[in-house]
Design a protein that fits this description.
heterodimer; A: mainly beta; 1 helix; 6% helix; B: Rossmann fold; Tumour Suppressor Smad4; 2 domains; globular
Chain lengths: 139, 249
């Protein structure tokens, strides 16, 4: 629901059709599926699915983000971020679980905030305590 | 006390109305029955029912009648505590599904059992309300501009459906492909993902188009674009069937 910040929203969520052009902030508590074109921020408490026909110019923030279309802007996924073979991302991505499929285009900085994984790794590999983030750059 | 507004009927439908009156009498919930005429519109009769102090106003007939009664109940402060009952004439209709009635007997029984549910309704500014759905349709697809909260959009559509809650569906049928291509897809069992439909939920939407497309509720034109539609959350008390499956609205 746009502008609705209820955490446990149900229903099909927001769907932006291929023939839609939006300007502004698209915010929904439930899932968002985008087939169309958006210039602005896209925020969801659950998942955002950017399909092959979609183009987004602006930041994306959600729990699970799935990119098969084109995105120009930063992406923050608290859960999982997946860039499909048809996906094109130009901007920084932040997620603790990133998957970039073969064929995908990614130009930007990837930040993976470490949580439990780091703690597990710390037991085996000695690390300096200041390095709490791993940064990858692919261009 | 119950106040029944019956749609004027002739022939078979008249017999049906007599049957309804009999059932209501048997259930012990008979009340004053009125029908609209050229002298008294549905809105005037509803207003009269409110003034007379009836606690329950029942719309007996098509969706259009119920929506007109709702318009009066929602726009009058004095009608705040008045409960709406509905006996639809089509039990496959959206309104029948909303209140969870399957036939005449269940609709009349629901009135007797009087289980209340507060529902969302939509307001087409300035003063039209509806419980079912509003439809904007055109033969050829049109460019429609819409604004939702801090979001502005443009869409090519030939059908827009607005439902209480405020759910908005945009659909452009022309982009689905030609009839032969759809036939071949059907023939070879190829399923095409519908990427041309849009679905939004909000509290307020403004719709504009170059042509003043009509907004229809229950087949009747109630407004023309540009229109602003609001969701009025939980303002209408409606009698629903006891065994109705609880929905969001």
């Amino acid at each position: 629901m746009l502008g609705d910040k209820r955490p446990n929203a149900t229903g099909p969520g927001t769907v932006v059709g291929a023939n839609v052009k939006l300007v502004g902030t698209l915010q929904d508590a439930s899932d968002i599926t985008i087939h169309g074109r958006i210039e602005g921020e896209v925020i969801s408490n659950q998942s955002i699915n950017v399909t092959e026909t979609a183009y987004i110019k602006g930041p994306i923030s959600a729990d699970i983000v799935n990119i098969a279309g084109k995105v120009r802007g930063s992406i923050t996924a608290t859960g999982k971020l997946e860039i499909m073979p048809t996906g094109k991302v130009f901007g920084s991505i932040t997620s603790k679980d990133v998957s970039i499929k073969s064929g995908a285009i990614f130009v930007g900085k990837c930040t993976m905030p470490e949580g439990e994984k780091e703690e597990a790794e710390e037991k085996t590999i000695e690390e300096t305590p200041q390095n709490k983030e791993t940064t990858y750059e692919v261009e | 006390m119950y106040y029944y507004i019956l749609a004027p009927q002739k022939g078979k439908a008249y017999i049906r109305q007599e049957k309804i009156k009999d059932i209501l009498g048997d259930l012990g919930i008979a009340g004053e029955t009125v029908s609209p005429s050229p002298a008294r519109t549905i809105e005037e009769l509803t207003h009269l029912g409110v003034i007379k102090g009836y606690s329950t106003i029942v719309a007996v007939g098509p969706e259009g009648l119920a929506n007109k009664v709702i318009t009066v109940l929602a726009s009058q402060k004095t009608a705040k505590n008045v409960v709406l009952g509905i006996i639809p004439d089509n039990f496959d209709s959206v309104i029948a599904q909303k209140i969870g009635v399957k036939d005449l007997y269940s609709a009349c029984n629901a009135l007797k059992e009087r289980r209340l549910e507060t529902m969302d309704i939509c307001q087409i500014e300035p003063n039209k309300f509806f419980l079912t759905e509003a439809i904007v349709e055109s033969f050829r697809n049109q460019e429609v501009y819409f604004s939702i909260d801090n979001l502005k959009g443009k869409v090519m559509v030939n059908r827009i459906v607005i439902k209480p809650g405020l759910e908005i569906f945009f659909h452009d049928k022309s982009l689905e492909g030609s009839t032969p291509s759809r036939f071949f897809r059907w023939l070879f069992g190829k399923k095409q993902v519908d990427i041309f439909s849009s679905n939004f939920r909000t509290k307020r939407v403004r719709l504009e188009s170059q042509n003043n497309l009509p907004v229809k509720v229950s087949g009747e034109i109630v407004a023309k674009m540009p229109v602003t539609i609001n969701n009025r959350s939980r303002i209408l008390k409606i009698i629903v069937a006891r065994d109705k499956i609880k929905t969001k609205n």
